[in-house]
Specification:
Length: 163
């Protein structure tokens, strides 16, 4: 039980830290004086729209994971809303991995590329494809775990009916 308490506080801390850092990241481009000689369209797309999409998806992943941890902490491990929270976190992890495929392959230049002085950083993005695979694998693991928990929920319901 002590471990669940630590996990609950850690999840709350990570969620709050993510929200604060996201606000800083989304506001920062408007305070930079040098936009690197890019057009307004590139600036809006690269410095505003793409980061908002990434932050929104990461927010949803953390939101559903936090919801899962808090419900598990209350002892509602094998309940439909708890299982659904884990499944939704998995779905958003997969979505995050899939939307990063064009970014990593250099088709879509993410906000770090806009105004970039060193184009060799694109190679670093291409070499960091492991994070793409990790997010997809973690999402698949969450969905698989939610399926196992769903089957456990059904078995628990059947056992309650037979008693």
């Amino acid at each position: 039980m002590k471990l669940l308490s630590v996990l609950k506080h850690l999840m709350n801390f990570v969620f709050l830290a993510f929200i604060l850092s996201s606000i800083f990241m989304l506001v920062r481009p408007f305070y930079d004086s040098d936009s690197g000689g890019v057009s307004n369209t590139q600036f809006i797309y690269g410095q505003v729209i793409l980061p908002i999409i990434h932050v929104a998806i990461l927010f949803m992943i953390l939101f559903y994971l936090r919801k899962f941890v808090l419900r598990s902490f209350k002892g509602n491990d094998l309940e439909k809303p708890t299982i659904q929270s884990l499944k939704m976190a998995g779905i958003f992890c997969i979505i995050y991995g899939v939307i990063r495929i064009p970014q990593i392959l250099g088709i879509i230049h993410f906000y770090s590329v806009v105004g970039m002085e060193d184009p060799s950083l694109l190679l670093d993005d291409f070499l960091n494809m492991g994070s793409l695979y990790y997010s997809i694998l973690i999402g698949l693991f969450f969905i698989y775990l939610s399926r196992i928990m769903d089957q456990s929920f059904m078995i628990k319901q059947e056992n309650q009916l037979t008693i």
